[in-house]
Amino acid sequence: MAFLELRQIDFSYPGGRPAVLSGVNLALNREGISAIIGPNGCGKTTLTKIMLGILRPTSGEVLLEGRSVQEYTLAQIGRRIGYVFQNPEQQLFSSTVAEEIGFGLSYRSEDPAVIRERVEFLLDYFELSPYRQVFPLHLSYGEKQRLAIAAVLANEPEFLILDEPTVGLDACRKELLAAHLHKVARLGRGMVLVSHDTAFVNRMANRVIALEKGRVQRDSGLEGNVGHES
Amino acid sequence: MLGMNLDPRSKLVIVFCITTLAVVYNTPRALFLLLAGTIGLLLLFRIDIKRVGGYLKPYMLLLLILFLAQCIFTPGGEVLLAAGSLRLVGSRGLLLGTSVVLRLLIVIAAAILLTTSNSRDFISGLVQWKVPYEIAFMVSVTIRFLPLFRDEFVNAVTAVQLRGVELKKVSWGKKMALFRQLFFPLVYGAILKAQQLSIAMEARGFRAYPQRTYLRQLRLNWADYGLILSCPVITLLLIGLSIVGG
Questions:
Q1: Given CB atoms, is A196 within the 8 Å cutoff of chain B?
Q2: Are the Cβ atoms of A75 and B166 closer than 8 angstroms?
Q3: Is there a contact between B166 and A76 if contact means CB atoms under 8 Å apart?
Q4: ipTM above threshold 0.90
Q5: Is the CB of residue A11 less than 8 Å from the CB of residue A19?
């Protein structure tokens, strides 16, 4: 059974605007790195929000391990799927960088020593240690991006969806992110990368899904199915 | 459509009158009638009430907290609920709590009327009424910022839940602490955005020249004149009646 399955997803934003997604079918396994690529406005971010249940499709259904995502609360989904928003500012809400990383853990009643250790590791790994007491919105864009990724990874979700994770990262930090994501993938966790960064996608993904005008135009995970959805 | 044809200045006058009445009225009955009237006006303006409900959803918890705080902390009146010798809810607190919630709902519902005109029209309407451009611009920016602030709050709550926090299962104490934790970054974030906006405006020559010209001139029609004249008169009458009626 696929970890995440999208069946005949259609989506339009309210106000009679044209359809953003039409008849999207996708099956994502718990393991492996998939990338969703496509031009601006083709529905990539909308698709990820539908996967998480943040947006409800106009028609069709999303299944998480065989159950509709509507049957889960956002928190239940969030514990299993880590999501990095396209704009990191949208997910930063704490007063300090360290608090931001440890936030989810502290609400799970984790041992304070474990929280401290994990926060320290991620601060160090994403080179955020000098900013541990800084207000997150005072960071530069690249730093906010690293913080958003670190905060999501701190929860150790079993699946990750990262929307444009390399935007604002320099080559060295991209390298570090790639190494960490490979490590996460080796632990048997799957992920979806939404990206325009072709080099990063080619290097990371073992499946590439190309969206265009709200439809899956190409899916390298399906043999010879160019122009068809799965 | 009535709402679309009205001049933005007429809408401002209507909203000003409604909010004035909301401040003056202090009984739940009068406020409820005013809220019903405001909703009727929204329907007249063909505003989708379901969408309004969606706008209000994120504020419901805040309204509930305000209501409970008023109920619990307002002294006086008959005791309606008590735990042993500890007074929990008094009749005065209940009345005040209901009034505060209704008042806020009226203000939010009235403000939705303003969303039926674009901010550019508000600016040119106010400038035609000799309001300094800087002030008119600030008013329009405020109107534009309100939904943004709401979106930020919704995003923050979504992000919190996506970190695995089950908001419905969190105890009230923890929930209050969480909202307090969200409040400061949200307000500070809004201030930062306002600062960035002011820099962007100045970089694009805001106030660089003393004179501004406008391509579009707004004209008041008979319905606008009727509303602009009658709304304040009706408001004054209603205020007078509420004073006389006690």
A1: no
A2: yes
A3: yes
A4: no
A5: yes
